[in-house]
């Protein structure tokens, strides 16, 4: 792919309002932007989605920067590649560190698609012109949740996801259900429960939720299979699925009926697509998860969600859900509940250089 140089930017922005889960609150978001330029001057962009602290997965912005700087970029400097899938294969010699790998692998996909003068969605086999958009409500106040939901419904979002935990589940969700009897609602527990909470989880069955995401431990698929036998609400796995093998095992074990695919969590677009293809073959619907991300990762998510198996609205909301001003132009917008899949080459969005510059707190360049 004739790489000339790679630039890493660590950027930082405040969220418009805090994103609260039982694991803590995100008020400020750091992220990593990867820019890969080839010898023809074409640039591909990727985004590292690890958080500043390891509350969601073990990776952080600092561990990702270490992996990119000291391991992954040096590997690419040593081995020339012709296709992003070769980078994914090369990175298999390194254990885990999926978000760091995805940051660079997705930039290579954007670069590759641009080199072919095709959209990223087109090059990976996307079939949708628009994708259905959903949004996440992450607050511990029912009053705020109802107010937020009202606004999101006015903006046209097709489904709402609500964060739950044993201190905030049945009452919280049933208040929302009472106001909105037919609204598609899903609940995300981020592993807040154990099998001892079976009665609490079973009680949610009557609320007609689309699914419950990751009720049990991130390291488990056995107990999720046992739980799914006891509750009617479909289980969706997020944190438990970090590889293709995890997805295959979970489907075969009956641990979930739905999978949330996040490119960063599984190490890149190559692996995300493999999981999608497997789920499509086995009639397991998938949807694209979010990471409170900036526009570049949001653009990659749009391309991924254009694949045929993404039949459920994902956590792909407008740039304005979290940011006063995003780093891409135009920003991602939701109209009538959908986001248009761009047909320009690569990710189909340009970079808002002014915004990138004013949010950059660290920058480093690697020559090839
Ligand atoms: O990016 C978005 O729109 C929402 C992201 C989101 O819900 C999550 C991001 C990261 C960690 C979690 O709490 C949560 C999730 O688990 O899906
Ligand atoms: Mg989740």
Following the backbone from N to C, one meets helices and strands in this order, namely EEEHHHHEEHEHEHEHEHEHHEHEEEHE
Number of domains: 2
Architecture per CATH nomenclature, i.e. the level-2 architecture of the largest domain: Alpha-Beta Barrel
Count of individual helical segments: 13
Which ligands occur here? the ligand O=C(O)CCC(=O)C1=CC=C[C@@H](O)[C@@H]1C(=O)O, magnesium ion
Distance between the termini: 12 Å
Mean of all residue-level pLDDT scores: 97
Give the CATH topology of the largest domain: TIM Barrel
Evaluate the radius of gyration. 20 Å
Strand content: 15-25%
Q: Report the major sheet.
A: 7 strands, parallel
Poorly predicted residue ranges:
none
- How many extended strands? 15
Task: Report the CATH C-level class of the largest domain.
Answer: Alpha Beta
Helix content: 25-40%
Give the tags:
alpha/beta; 368 residues; magnesium; globular; TIM Barrel; four-stranded antiparallel sheet; binds magnesium ion; 13 helices
Describe the structure.
Its cofactor is a divalent metal cation. InterPro entries: Enolase-like_C_sf, Enolase-like_N, Enolase_C-like, Mandelate_racemase_C, Mandelate_racemase_N_dom, MenC, OSBS/NAAAR. The active site is at 163 (proton donor), 262 (proton acceptor). Keywords: Lyase, Magnesium, Menaquinone biosynthesis, Metal-binding. Its EC number is 4.2.1.113. It is a single chain. This protein has 368 residues and is α/β, with parallel strands linked by helices. The protein folds into 2 domains: 3-117 and 353-367, 2-Layer Sandwich (Enolase-like, domain 1), CATH 3.30.390.10; 122-340, Enolase-like C-terminal domain (TIM Barrel, Alpha-Beta Barrel), CATH 3.20.20.120. It is built from 13 helices and 15 strands. It has helices spanning 61-78, 84-90, 98-115, 120-124, 142-155, 170-179, 198-203, 222-230, 244-253, 263-266, 269-281, 295-304, 353-359; strands spanning 3-21, 24-38, 43-48, 130-132, 134-137, 159-163, 185-188, 211-213, 235-237, 258-261, 286-288, 328-329, 338-340, 350-351, 360-367. The strands form 4 sheets. A 7-stranded parallel sheet has the order 5-6-7-8-9-10-11. A 4-stranded antiparallel sheet has the order 3-2-1-15, with helices on both faces. A hairpin with a 4-residue loop joins strand 2 (24-38) and strand 3. Helix 1 crosses helix 3 (98-115) and helix 2 packs antiparallel against helix 3 (98-115). The radius of gyration is 20 Å and the shape is globular. The protein starts with a strand and ends with a strand. The model has no long low-confidence stretch (mean pLDDT 97). Residues 188, 190, 213-214, 238, 260 line the site of magnesium ion (MG).
